[in-house]
Specification:
- With 257 residues, the protein is α/β, with parallel strands linked by helices.
- It has a single domain (1-183, 203-257), classed as 2-enoyl-CoA Hydratase, Chain A, domain 1.
- The protein has helices spanning 29-43, 66-71, 79-91, 108-114, 140-161, 167-172, 185-197, 201-214, 224-234, 237-248, and strands at 5-10, 13-18, 50-55, 97-101, 105-106, 118-122, 126-128, 165-166, 178-180.
- It starts with a strand and ends in a 9-residue tail after the last helix.
Length: 257
């Protein structure tokens, strides 16, 4: 497995770590491949009952690697299909999953946390979906996940403004389950993991399957036209300007083209 993803397992609890701290754990090709491989391997481990997902360094995950996205502009294929597929693979994990959000969870990083079953956050953590600030549209399956967890009203606010919300606000709108001081986030996450791991494995797997089936109907919604809107935005001059502006730490100049 690539060094960008590390995992360990002990006493029924596995920990998967995004390991690009110098890049705020931004997701590039090796990170996505490593996440998929980690969850494939963990699904085969009968001694693992809970999986904790965390980031190395100060951030949980800053989303997609904008430099890689800009370098791939115009390349054939859909670069967002890879991240959607990997996040859905995380969600399909046989074991219950907990996101330990000790720092910022931005864009794809926010979605990674949302695709885990439970979320524990440090009170300094921020959550954001700033796609409108870089000229992009949220892929339909990821928009669905936001609506599923925080409802349409809060999803509109998060997506339309592109502004981050703090962990306390995330708790208020149902995005996270628990908020604690930074020094306590690891202990709180492991305590929750221990509580779950001590329960019956067949019960956990069965209840996770029940919940997945209960929300599965939304996956059959036709969204080809929305995929086209997402693709048009992703390939636009505005999206390229937005990515470059973010990397250069300046305000973008959007022209609607």
């Amino acid at each position: 497995m690539a060094d960008e993803i590390l995992w360990t397992a002990a006493d029924g609890i596995a920990t998967v770590t995004l390991n690009r701290p110098d890049k705020r754990n931004a997701m590039n090709g090796p990170v996505l491949a490593g996440l998929r491989q980690a969850f494939e391997e963990l699904d085969a481990r009968r001694d693992v009952r809970v999986v904790v997902v965390r980031g190395a360094g100060p951030a949980f995950c800053a989303g997609m690697d904008l430099r890689e996205m800009e370098a791939q502009r115009g390349a054939p294929g859909d670069p967002e299909a890879g991240v959607v597929a990997v996040l859905q693979r995380v969600e399909r994990s046989r074991q219950p999953t907990i996101a330990m959000v000790h720092g910022d969870a931005i864009a794809g990083g926010c979605e990674l946390a949302l695709h885990c079953d439970l979320r524990v956050a440090a009170d300094v953590a921020r959550f954001a979906m700033p796609l409108a600030r870089i000229g992009m549209v949220v892929p339909f399956p990821l928009g669905q996940k936001l609506v599923e967890i925080i409802g349409p009203a809060h999803t509109r606010h998060l997506l339309f403004t592109g502004r981050p919300i703090d962990a306390r606000r995330a708790l208020e709108i149902g995005m996270v389950h628990q908020v604690v001081p930074p020094a306590e986030v690891e202990a709180a996450t492991l305590a929750l993991a221990r509580t779950i791991a001590d329960n019956a494995p067949l019960s956990l797997a069965g209840m996770k399957a029940v919940i997945a089936r209960a929300v599965a109907g939304s996956a059959r919604v036709e969204h080809g036209d929305l995929d086209a809107l997402t693709r048009r935005a992703r390939e636009s001059a505005d999206a390229s300007e937005g990515r470059r502006a973010m990397l250069e730490k300046r305000r973008p100049v959007f022209r609607g083209e």
